[in-house]
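Hi V.,

You were right to ask for the full record rather than a summary. Here it is.
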Amino acid sequence: MGGEATSDEAAAVRELRIALTVENFDAALAFYRDTLALPQVADWSSSERRVVLLEAGRATIELFDEAQAALVDEIEVGRRVAGPVRIALEVGDSAAVAATLEEAGATLLGGPVETPWRDLNVRLKAPDGMQLTLFTVPDH
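Predicted structure:
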């Protein structure tokens, strides 16, 4: 039938959206939108509630077992520190972006460090408590 999606099309994921509930909305918005420069693509706020949608490039889900999570923490920070969720963002210059985020209230946890896979990684704790890995992929 015309216009009906096949089961594969209907089940296909089109977007990954990470929803962060934050205590200080204005500070989080300034950190992610203004300092990290994530473009704002929607604002669904009302007089009772606040919500904005920020674009963060291509999305992937990276699944780790405990051993891999521990390895990445050891490489980036020197000890096991991350919880079950950590946001990793590819940027053009992880060290420079990390310095900018530190000025905006993030706490440096580790790095910059060259990983065994040759990325340059920096681990930060955002003002809202979320752990961020900034990574720069070397030119091929």
